[in-house]
Amino acid sequence: MVDDREPKPHPVRQALLELMARRGVITATDAARELGGSTGLYSFHLRSLARFGLIEESPAEGGKARPWRLVTGDRAVVTERTEAEAGDGLGLLARGLEDESYSRWLEGKARAPARWRRDESFSQVVYLTPEEMAGMAEVVKALIAQFRHRETDRSSRPADAAAVAVLARLFPLLEFEAEDRS
Description:
Blueprint: H1 11-23, E1 25-26, H2 28-35, H3 39-51, E2 55-57, E3 68-70, H4 80-86, H5 90-108, H6 130-148
Antiparallel strand pairs: 1-3, 2-3
Helix pairs in contact: 2-3
């Protein structure tokens, strides 16, 4: 009997991605300190996530530490083929982490400082050509890029800035014939 369920994400890799989503940049030592376990274990899994194109090395601030960060925007190179070859559903994992992070936000929103209790979630169906959809994606990426330097240049962050998740998914809502679904 063939098991056609989605592959389960590797728990160590999932924990590393969640930690990076919270902290931004981490090293294997940071992971070992926060998650328990050995730096060798986390170093191995960080390199594996990098091979899948989900994370990349972050500029080091000196010493022999090897910092890593999530790949974002144009630098994301994960393909469906890479995900399938990886065998642990990393694309699904990333989307699941996004959804989980948002669920956590909704659950804890009432405990957040008053000025941070608002979020900007929206959704809209619009009618676009493939070229217009690509153009809209470029506009969103360009807007996000205006703030990307704050990830590595802490001095450029306003004192009251906090990490904010920005998610955008543009995809066509196409109708497929029944025989195409098999």
